[in-house]
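Thread: quick sanity check before group meeting

JM: Hey all, I'm pulling together slides for Thursday and realized we never actually wrote out the predicted structure for the chain we discussed last week. Dropping the sequence here so it's in one place. If anyone has concerns about the input, flag it before I start.
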Amino acid sequence: MFDDADPASLSDEVIEARVLGCAAQITALTADFLDMVAELDVRESWRGPGIHSLAHWLSWKAGIAPRTAHEQLRVAKAIRALPAIRKAFREGRLTYSKVRALTRVATQEREAELVNLALSCTASQLDRAVRAMGQIDRNRGVEEESRPPVESTGRWKWNDDGSLSVSLRLSPLDGARFLAGAVRAEYERTRTCDDPDLSTVESVPRNTEPGSELEDSEVVPSRRRDLWRQVPSNVAPAVVAMADMVHDGIAMPDLAPGAEILIHAGERVESAHLDDGPALSEAEVAEARCGASTRDVVSRRIAGQPGKLALVGVGRRKRAPNKALVRALFVRDRCCQAPGCGRTRHLHAHHVVFWSAGGRTDPDNLILLCGSCHRSLHRGEFSITAHGKQRFSFHRPDGTEIELAPPTSRPGGWRPDQRIGLDATVPIGGGRMDLGYTTEVLYAVWEWKARNATRSEPAVQRAA
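JM (edit): ok, ran it. Output follows.
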């Protein structure tokens, strides 16, 4: 069956059978693929220069779209705790589309009934059932008793290790606003150049200064549909992106304590620190000067007065490319140039040869990087070499060059799994689905199982 026959030479019956057979093999292989993705996530062996996440690694190495990679990783992690779904998936009986839907509502207590449902309906019918279950679960989770209103509060402090801790307790509405902002910020932060709804408005690097030509430029709102993502499990990068938007979008006076990044340079590099904040490493100082609107405050300690500083001078904000150069960079690069990244928002115009080291502010020495890749570069996770005539190469710490797009190829010696039935993905029974009856039966079974489990607990305790 799995030969190299020309599809045009096959009869209708044969080609239909081969399509279903290939679908079953693809399903089983996808299950194996997600098993290995989940294991790779546990081992974290994917980490490397400029790699933001396992989804980023899959996008770069396996040629998978970033959003697809994020969803595949979510499903891979979920099915590890769902053995019945995982087994049917590996046997080719539950397609990836069905498994993806089931992982939104499945638990170990529910999965046996959900697998039976999925095997007997189409993927679109299962999607309808899962959406209905999600609504039922949300409605059943609403508490009828009234609660006193929650006031939003928040605290922050610098820790001994130099990190900043922020603690928030938000009212339901404020929390919804915060999460909605995080979703928008994460979407903008991780936008890539192949997004289907990419804005036609040119994005500009964030290291521009109030009063520059860019501040006065008119931006025409993009006509695009808004794609929503789920709230990220780690909201920290999105919150930083939200802060960047406010920091770059609101003009402030020449000196506004707390509203700009003030770095006390001190008499030695190793003594640099944030204004009224923790010490900074040399890499952090370089990152701040390269990618943000900063001002250096040169000071020295007063002898005999611990903690007292004498002000030597206040530097001007760092030099930024002018409007014409920024637009030229965007036309040339369009997105973050780190291999495998492609993000199009919150880009920094990075001086390959640092400006503080005499690097020129011209296209031969400037390249666009997103905030995450920019930080990785300053931490020494990779380096960039400028070759002149606006040509650049990326290198690992050992000096080897990082490929912009690693080639993909079909593995040799693959043989189909003969244990997978040719019609494994075909629904059992078929026909129309009565959604109300289906959900009523499922929830009745789950409630019955829960009651029986509750009754058996005292007996088990007495026996113990």
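AS: nice. The radius of gyration is 28 Å. Strands lie at 153-158, 164-169, 261-264, 273-274, 294-301, 309-314, 347-351, 366-370, 383-386, 392-395.
JM: adding both to the slides.
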